[in-house]
Specification:
The protein is mainly alpha-helical. It has 15 helices and no strands.
């Protein structure tokens, strides 16, 4: 998704309407629906601009609280990641409206314009994350196809013959090798060939096979990364997340008026969305990004209405990354974890079954194949809309940055 792909389409025109267009309430309806006691608690009535900014922060809190609650989707599932991205898109659009209205009123000072421009620069750094995540989704789609082959040949009508078992075993072996390569790319190459061999021993599906040679591993890894990633071969998700979060600090009490707090809210939400994407799908140096010193800095819980749910989400993501059964996975996405488990179970069922299959052994293989087929179906249904939504985040960031660069104040008009 290079920036040159963007054609400058109007914000109200999308080839793929958002599947969560009704998610949450609009900024201004939230402002109208706010209890009167909130305004009465203030020493003076807020101006229209200040009320909009306060309502914006409450709206961010609503979105994050709904994400924390799950909304019916399992945490870190494809559906949950899409809701997170949708929350970012909606808040980003409302933030854009607030800024545009302030500009029309002439209420945006040079200092406020600088804050908005700094957020634009921070958001531009997330474009590479979108590209890497799009590539990661494509990698998961390859895994799904191989797993789907293995499952489908064993679910065909009639008896299961040796040829079907060999074809399923070959598909699972190819899947295993792709997972090995992706695990190495996610680790940033830190373990070298040793990490490849350890991964091969721990993750290999099917009967024991001869370990590939050192030269074959290096050649395969280089070929895989050079053809599969649109980001640079030296690109690191951990370093990119650090760049997105650099300088992202809570405004002091005397700085929290005006746009300072909303800009900080958008920076934290951007960092959370980028971090969740990197954690969920295969990305170069994804493992480094999950280390504690690369995680987003937690905002003061009591200072902003959206801080408690955001901190809770960060803590839950951190705990998922520490889980023993997820630590060596190629991604924290629930569907990836299910694919790995079901593929492993099917491989073990195939390798322990005699040929020709009959009775309980055949039923065991078919049951494992059916479970894997169900996971593949869920992936097929979810990956395409997820990829579209990642593209929408990319284009929305580009569009907003272009609007910011066209600001008369920044251009000295």
């Amino acid at each position: 998704m290079p920036a040159t792909d963007y054609q400058g389409t109007p914000s109200h025109s999308h080839s793929h309407p958002s599947p969560f267009s009704s998610f949450g309430r609009s900024l201004f309806s939230l402002r109208r629906d706010s209890p009167a006691s909130a305004a009465a608690a203030s020493p003076a009535m807020l101006s229209g601009e200040d009320a909009d900014l306060e309502a914006f922060q409450r709206h961010v809190a609503v979105h994050l609280a709904e994400l924390r609650g799950g909304g019916g989707e399992e945490f870190l599932s494809i559906a949950w990641i899409r809701r997170l991205l949708e929350a970012f898109l909606m808040c980003q659009e409302e933030f854009r409206v607030v800024v545009a209205q302030a500009r029309r009123r002439g209420a945006l000072s040079a200092a406020a314009e600088k804050l908005v421009a700094e957020f634009g620069d921070r958001a531009v750094k997330a474009l590479d994350v979108c590209n890497a995540a799009r590539d990661g989704v494509d990698q998961v789609r390859r895994w799904e196809r191989l797993a789907g082959i293995a499952a489908s040949v064993l679910l065909a009508p009639g008896e299961i013959h040796g040829g079907q078992l060999r074809r399923a075993r070959k598909a699972l072996s190819d899947l295993s090798f792709l997972l090995i390569e992706d695990a190495a790319a996610a680790a940033g190459g830190g373990g070298g060939v040793a990490s490849f061999l350890a991964s091969h021993r721990n993750r290999s599906f099917g009967r024991a096979r001869a370990s590939p040679s050192r030269a074959a591993l290096l050649a395969s890894s280089s070929h895989f990364r050079s053809l599969s990633w649109s980001v640079s071969r030296t690109w690191s998700a951990a370093r990119q997340l650090q760049a997105i979060g650099a300088g992202l600090t809570a405004p002091r009490a005397h700085e929290a008026s005006g746009l300072a707090a909303p800009v900080y809210a958008m920076g934290c939400l951007l960092h959370l969305a980028a971090w969740a994407l990197v954690a969920s799908v295969p990305c170069p140096d994804r493992g480094g990004a999950l280390q504690a010193h690369h995680l987003p800095a937690a905002p003061p819980r009591a200072a902003f209405p959206w801080a408690p749910p955001l901190v809770a989400l960060q803590e839950r993501l951190t705990e998922e990354g520490k889980r023993k059964d997820r630590r060596n996975s190629c991604g924290l996405l629930k569907e990836i974890h299910s694919l790995e488990k079901c593929a492993q179970r099917l491989a073990e069922a195939i390798d322990s079954a005699p040929v020709p299959l009959a009775g309980e052994r055949e039923a065991e293989v078919r049951e494992a194949a059916a479970e894997l087929a169900a996971v593949c179906a869920a992936m097929r249904d979810g990956l395409e809309p997820l990829e579209r939504q990642v593209r929408e985040v990319f284009h929305r960031i580009v569009r907003s940055r272009m609007e910011g660069l066209d600001s008369p104040m920044l251009n000295g008009d």
